[in-house]
Specification:
Layout lengths: L2 E4 L5 H5 L7 E3 L5 E5 L2 E8 L2 E4 L12 H5 L6 H10 L9 H10 L5 H15 L8 H5 L3 H5 L6 H14 L12 H8 L7 H11 L10 H11 L7 H11 L4 H14 L5 H6 L8
Antiparallel strand pairs: 1-5, 2-3, 3-4, 4-5
Helix pairs in contact: 3-13, 4-10, 9-10
Length: 279
């Protein structure tokens, strides 16, 4: 029998469809199917009941969402986003797959990112699992090109080789302060501050990471600095000081709210966490 647990302050659909993970698909009957690590999972939500292959840690069900929201600043834009999508949580994903997925995401829409990630798992993985760094490190660029990576293939290969050599230790990132962790990740060719922030937020426990791409930047300027001139650097400093220790969770609410309210063109909305962002 599938697991059935009672949940509060949790929105499965918002959590899985807000652009932070790419191995989940919604079925017509309300079930979501996805792959987490070595496991293929199937889960759905009906009211306050979560049913299926429930992984409480992966879904961050062990943290108090009210306590997180209590750290948010009291401003109309964020308060409205939380009210509309309360229950969205930041997933706890595996660092290598997260880094690889966001390297593959550059200039791609979410549907295309899902296709690339699925192709990598099918071509190089085993039993639906995402391929380990050492497997990708031994691949050739033409082999990676079959997964429709395009120019991203060389960046993914370089990252895998750095991890395989021990030049980059992903397991050390959660224990580093945020700026140091960003510095380590951005040593990789093709990894800018946005990809680094996504990796640190979605898989390394750096809840204060606030990924900013071109669309999120435009949204922040419109909501918080209308008619003002402010540099990208000042904007990053603002997000880190204004949104508090769970800035990344706040970012997800703002971003998902923008998508759902249709303020971005369809293509841009789907790719807004996938657009390239260099430091």
């Amino acid at each position: 029998m599938p697991d059935r647990i009672n949940v509060s302050d949790f929105d499965l659909a918002a959590t899985l469809e807000c652009g932070q993970a790419f191995r989940w698909n919604r079925e017509a009957d309300g079930w979501f199917t996805g792959v987490v690590g070595q496991r293929r999972l199937r889960v759905r939500q009906a009211g306050n009941t979560l049913e299926g292959d429930v992984d409480p840690r992966y879904f961050a069900l062990d943290v108090s969402l009210p306590k997180i929201i209590a750290t948010f600043p009291d401003d109309p834009a964020l308060s409205g986003a939380v009210a509309n999508h309360r229950g969205l949580r930041v997933l706890r994903q595996e660092p290598w797959e997260t880094l690889a997925s966001f390297i593959a995401s550059s200039t791609k829409q979410i549907v295309q990112i899902r296709q690339i990630v699925a192709a990598l798992a099918d071509r190089f993985g085993e039993h639906d699992a995402f391929p380990a760094p050492d497997v990708i490190a031994r691949a050739t660029l033409p082999e990676l090109a079959t997964c429709k990576l395009g120019f991203r293939a060389k960046y993914l290969l370089a990252a895998a080789q750095a991890i395989d050599r021990g030049t980059l230790r992903l397991d050390k990132l959660p224990g580093m302060d945020y700026e140091r962790a960003v510095e380590e990740l951005t040593k990789l060719h093709g990894v800018g501050e946005k990809i680094a922030a996504c990796t640190l937020l979605f898989s390394c426990g750096h809840d204060d990471a606030f990924p900013i791409d071109v669309w999120v930047e435009r949204s922040l300027r419109r909501l918080y600095f209308p008619g003002q001139k402010i540099t990208a650097r000042q904007l990053r400093q603002f997000t880190r000081s204004h949104f508090g220790p769970y800035a990344g969770w706040a970012q997800q609410y703002l971003f998902f709210s923008e998508r759902r309210r249709g303020r971005l063109p369809v293509a841009a909305a789907d790719s807004s966490l996938a657009s390239p962002r260099r430091p």
